[in-house]
Amino acid sequence: MSNSHLLNTYTQWPVSFVSGEGAYLKDEKGGSYLDFVGGIAVNALGYKDPGLTKALNEVLDSGVLHVSNLYYNAYVLRAAEKLASLSGMEKVFFCNSGAEANEAALKLARKWGSGKNKSTIISMIDSFHGRTYAAVTATGQKKYHQHFAPLPSGFVYAHFNDLDSVKTLVDEQTCAIIVEPIQGEGGIIPATEEFLHGLRDLCDKHDLLLIYDEVQCGMGRSGRPFAHQLYGVKPDILTTAKALAGGVPAGAMLTRGSANDVFVPGDHASTFGGNALAARGVCYMCDRLEDEAFLAHVEAMGSYLRKKLDELQAQFPDLITDVRGAGLINGMAISIPPKEVVAKCFERKLLVLSAGSDVVRFVPPLIITEKEIDAAVRILQESLKGLSS
Ligand code: PLP
């Protein structure tokens, strides 16, 4: 197999997966890998979920994979209704990815602010919002900006979990604040209660839109349908993608209150947004998240994993410096480059990935079991034995 025709945008492991079931993937030679990456927080139901397969087949069998947004599609209407009900938001715009959902949110915020002469958007240092131009500009990490100047103007950066640093940036030009309730790529850092509540108060006081990027931490990963529900503070705009359609590409921007009526026909669109196959996937994912027992499982498995990682930290105090997260989005901060751990685990057929510069990230399928967590932690333990700080 050759990669000579692939553009050089990814560093890839020398493996190609051909099948999967539950939390396991099989490579071409029959090697079985325990997956704590889950397509980077996409495959919430793992592989070969019978309900998802049946739901998607329903659309394939209908022959109508796609109709344009010039017409209605029953799955899209149902998906919007279900998402609104799960999130407490009111309106939904469908697109195809996280970056695209954030692009929609940032454009909406700019249009909302245009009548008020407000256009500046505050985002957080070490945030991640995607790779398209506005989303990457909102991303508060210089390494993603390098080489791509000129970036869109009107973005400023505050420190995550530091309300005063946000307050000092707010002025009469500010129109919105965008924040991940749990920073993902930046190193699995949950917002503090005080920070999210403080941002809401700040937005209410200064007439700003609050945007939550739940592309990674949403769709059940935190143990609630959306991570901000752990905090009880609502946004004006919510973005989601990744696990939204159980592995079919999908993204969505959800709005509430004064954000509902900003866009009118012609302002924004996406050919594939609300694609029938993706919308059926969204409906199915929402059905699963409506089940409290499913969410309770995520919460229980998350606590179990963190307990096991805490035990590992006690065993390797020089290597492991912190264990943190919520539900099944967790990170283990370490004193050596996380890639070294990721590589050792890969050799032992456990898939994990890094986040930020010093964190090993665990975002397994939400159906993961205690037995599988035990197996993963055993491999981690073996991997750490061969490494030292
Ligand atoms: N926002 C967050 C919080 C993310 O973690 C990501 C991707 O990792 C994105 C946005 C971008 O999503 P996508 O890669 O689907 O464009």
Question: What is the tally of beta strands?
Answer: 17
Termini separation (Å)? 37 Å
For the biggest sheet, the summary is: 7 strands, mixed
SSE string, helices as H and strands as E: EEEHHHEHEHEHEEEHEEEHHEEHEEEH
Q: What multimeric state do the chains show?
A: single chain
SS-based class: alpha/beta
Strand content: 15-25%
Uncertain segments are none
What's the pLDDT, averaged over the residues?
A: 97
In short:
This protein is α/β, with parallel strands linked by helices and 389 residues long. The protein has helices at 38-41, 50-62, 74-87, 98-114, 133-138, 163-167, 193-206, 276-289, 292-315, 338-347, 370-385; strands at residues 17-21, 24-27, 32-35, 91-95, 120-124, 155-158, 174-179, 182-183, 189-190, 209-213, 237-240, 251-255, 320-326, 329-334, 350-351, 353-355, 359-362. Strands 4-12-11-10-7-5-6 form a seven-stranded mixed β-sheet, with helices on both faces.
Describe the structure.
This protein has 389 residues and is α/β, with parallel strands linked by helices. The chain has eleven helices and 17 strands. The chain has helices at residues 38-41, 50-62, 74-87, 98-114, 133-138, 163-167, 193-206, 276-289, 292-315, 338-347, 370-385, and strands spanning 17-21, 24-27, 32-35, 91-95, 120-124, 155-158, 174-179, 182-183, 189-190, 209-213, 237-240, 251-255, 320-326, 329-334, 350-351, 353-355, 359-362. The protein has a seven-stranded mixed β-sheet, with helices on both faces. Helix 9 runs parallel beside helix 11. The longest helix has 24 residues, at 292-315. The chain is globular. 49% of the residues are buried. The model has no long low-confidence stretch (mean pLDDT 97). Residues 97-99, 102, 128-130, 180, 184-185, 213, 215-216, 241 line the site of pyridoxal-5'-phosphate.
